[in-house]
Amino acid sequence: MSIYKLLLLPGDGIGPEISAEAEKVLALLNEAGVARFEVERGLVGGAAYDAHKQAISEADMTRALEADAVLLAAVGGPKWDGVPYDLRPESGLLRLRKDLGLFANLRPAICYAALADASSLKRDIVDGLDIMIVRELTGGVYFGEPKEITDLGNGQKRAVDTQVYETYEIERIGRVAFEMARKRGNKVTSSEKSNVMKSGYLWREVITALHKREYADVKLEHMLADALAMQLVRWPKQFDVVVTDNLFGDMLSDEAAMLTGSLGMLPSASLGAADEKGKRHAMYEPCHGSAPDIAGKGIANPIAMIGSLGMALRYSFDLPKAADAIDAAIANVLAKGLRTADIKGDAPSTVSTKEMGDAIVAEL
Amino acid sequence: MSIYKLLLLPGDGIGPEISAEAEKVLALLNEAGVARFEVERGLVGGAAYDAHKQAISEADMTRALEADAVLLAAVGGPKWDGVPYDLRPESGLLRLRKDLGLFANLRPAICYAALADASSLKRDIVDGLDIMIVRELTGGVYFGEPKEITDLGNGQKRAVDTQVYETYEIERIGRVAFEMARKRGNKVTSSEKSNVMKSGYLWREVITALHKREYADVKLEHMLADALAMQLVRWPKQFDVVVTDNLFGDMLSDEAAMLTGSLGMLPSASLGAADEKGKRHAMYEPCHGSAPDIAGKGIANPIAMIGSLGMALRYSFDLPKAADAIDAAIANVLAKGLRTADIKGDAPSTVSTKEMGDAIVAEL
Ligand SMILES: CC(C)[C@H](C(=O)O)[C@@H](O)C(=O)O
Ligand SMILES: CC(C)[C@H](C(=O)O)[C@@H](O)C(=O)O
User: Which residue is catalytic, options B193, B219, B237, B354?
Assistant: First the structure.
């Protein structure tokens, strides 16, 4: 039986609560002999800062590099608003992405039929929605240098961030998008601001050439990022796979997730490049944040977290059947009417984090 | 009677058609003796490129600098996809913004009650929506240097764009937002990515200090740009004035405009700083684009263009009554059921660009 090392980073806010439910699923998978998951626990974000004044410790970074996959819940919260910039909770997350080389962030925006009415959009606009946003995650304005604030005197400061993309970075994320599209609706929408940004101009050029060279069978369209932000609201079902840079991907994937009315439901995967042996670093996290306002109340929705474990089974451990089983279990508990507070809608009552987790385990 | 010089730049696509309707309104204002508007016409965008291989000619730039206000319809279209980067249609618009010093872009997102059902969002989410997005327009990644593509050899290129903000730029746009809020709902939401970008960090710092120093009576909240992209979809009525940078403002204002279902209805104003005499450069344009797909068909909605003229009367010519009259005329024709194709909804029939323009003139 295969042995897999999983690093669990519950992080901040509701992170520990929803992580506990994912651990129940892991325990079940171990019991059922699907594989042997050896779970280590670490700290990231504010939790790590509180423990050792770093948003992730060197020891945990080493564990992350050695793990077969990282499962991260969420980081951040107002508690750490005052910490120095380089130590803020998010820097732990960004370091993980960068040092693990997780350039491909897959963010599905799926509208669960049972939840279509929870959306602020009309039912027919979102029912059946299934978009995959492929976001570049280790480049762009998140990491480009210079990135600094200079004191100019006289009370004036100057802040600079740098958006940088090289051809190979655009090509490798483009490949992920085209490959993904072939397994889905066979359409890729590439988004940038080529009318204003040189990086957008290069982005369009590289994606166009890659398409022509290797993926001419996939339908490709280009859409400016502002137009895409609009079209997501107008008629989101026009999209299949969307590929875009780090910053646009951040905003567009959040917007797309909110369209579905199912934010607490959406997992994500961040993948690195495969080495000679086909091994690659990977991290899985819910699309939602740490929700400090409801932390500790036992009412958070654990589904995105359990779904993220499902994505790990699919993309890191090649256990598609187990992943399908998790997806089916989630669909079943929803069909039975179980709702956490965030997806209440017209449901007569809601269940707790723990009850939702237990119900999914029972289905499995 | 005051004499005002207005430069009309119809631009591309549907621009000329909707400009013609705005000219009818101008003629009426002249006839009625509201003021004397001397209208000059110029070229911008693809139209300017076709005429003299520049996205705006030096002569028209001079006219723009001398005018009391510029009224621009729209630029761009697939026809000019192949023109050199520095001559593309958008560069004419960007040059106007930069050389006229139009740092403050006001983009209202208003949902007209008569059109609430045209939105893809549920009626109760958008009915009565009235947000003012205050977008910084002459800084950030649009204009920062370096902005270049370098050939690295081996088929590799490197593209760089630079996001730069200085304290004074953030302060002056912040002031516009706070002043605006005082005349409206008294609330400002400032948006950036301070968790990732140094410019966002400075932005938050400067807005916070300005608020404390001069605008403590206005409610201020900070919201990360990705969270704002989400919240606009979830519950847009939580916002009054939103202040943000050039790039985030581009996306968020488009998203907000689309929420209303009234995109063809929304005007915008771009304002410079006032000189000693209280004079400032200003440009007014519809929020929508050049819509090349429907250009020349006579079906475009002229309301955003006429509304932009209304904004000019309000912000550049201090003619609030005439501006109110235009707004009322627009509301009246809508109440009477007149609809262009873009806002058809359940309307039994639609009117042409010309019919809509004539109806508004008749109301006036
Ligand atoms: C927490 C933050 C740094 C992060 C980002 O901006 O990438 C988050 O918004 C996300 O989308 O994962
Ligand atoms: C046409 C383009 C350069 C422009 C921008 O990006 O600012 C447009 O999208 C806008 O919002 O006015």
Answer: B193
* Same domain? B80 vs B176: no
Q: Do B162 and B229 reside in the same domain of the chain?
A: yes
Q: How many domains does chain B have?
A: 2
> Per the structure block, which two tokens stand in for B176?
């516009």
Task: Choose one of A225, A259, A293: the last residue of a domain.
Answer: A259
Read off the pLDDT of residues A131-148 as tens digits, 9 standing for 90 and up. 999 999 999 999 999 999
In A183-202, the residues whose Cβ lies within 8 Å of chain B are 193, 195-202
Give contacts of A138 with chain B, Cβ < 8 Å.
none
Q: Catalytic residue at A112?
A: no
Taking only the tens place, the pLDDT of each residue in B310-364 is 999 999 999 999 999 999 999 999 989 999 999 887 788 899 999 999 999 999 9
* Residue B301 marked as a ligand binder: yes
Task: Spell out which residues of chain A touch residue B160, defining contact as CB-CB under 8 Å.
Answer: 144, 162-164, 198-199
Nearest CA to ligand 2 atom 10: B250
Tell me the C-alpha distance between A171 and A209, whole Å.
9
CATH of the domain at B243: 3.40.718.10
Residue A57 lies in a domain: yes
Out of B120, B160, B166, closest to residue A122 by CB: B120
Does residue A169 belong to any structural domain of this protein? yes
CA of A188 to the centre of ligand 1 (A): 23
Q: Collect all residues of chain A within an 8 Å Cβ-Cβ radius of residue B230.
A: 254-255, 257-258, 263
Same domain, A160 and A237: yes
The pLDDT tens digits of the residues spanning A250-260 come to: 999 999 999 99
Residue that is last in its domain, among B206, B236, B259: B259
Contact A33, A27 (CB under 8 A): no
**Do B175 and A133 touch, CB atoms closer than 8 A?**
no
- Domain enclosing residue B51, as ranges: 1-106+266-364
Distance of CA B160 to the CA centre of its chain: 27
CA B91/CA A363 separation, integer angstroms = 58
Is residue B249 located within the same domain as residue B289? no
- Cβ pair B141:A163 closer than 8 A: yes
- Rounded CA-CA distance A355/A360 in Å is 9
Residues B228 and B165 placed together within one structural domain of the fold: yes
User: Residue A121 carries which DSSP code?
Assistant: B
- Judged by a CB distance cut-off of 8 A, whether residue A217 touches chain B is no
- DSSP alpha helix (H) spans, chain A: 15-31, 46-52, 58-66, 89-99, 123-126, 167-182, 198-214, 225-234, 246-259, 303-315, 320-335, 353-363
In a domain, B324, yes or no: yes
Count contacts between A and B (CB, < 8 Å). Answer: 184
**For the CA of B194, the nearest ligand:** 1
Cα of A91 from ligand 1 centre, angstroms: 10
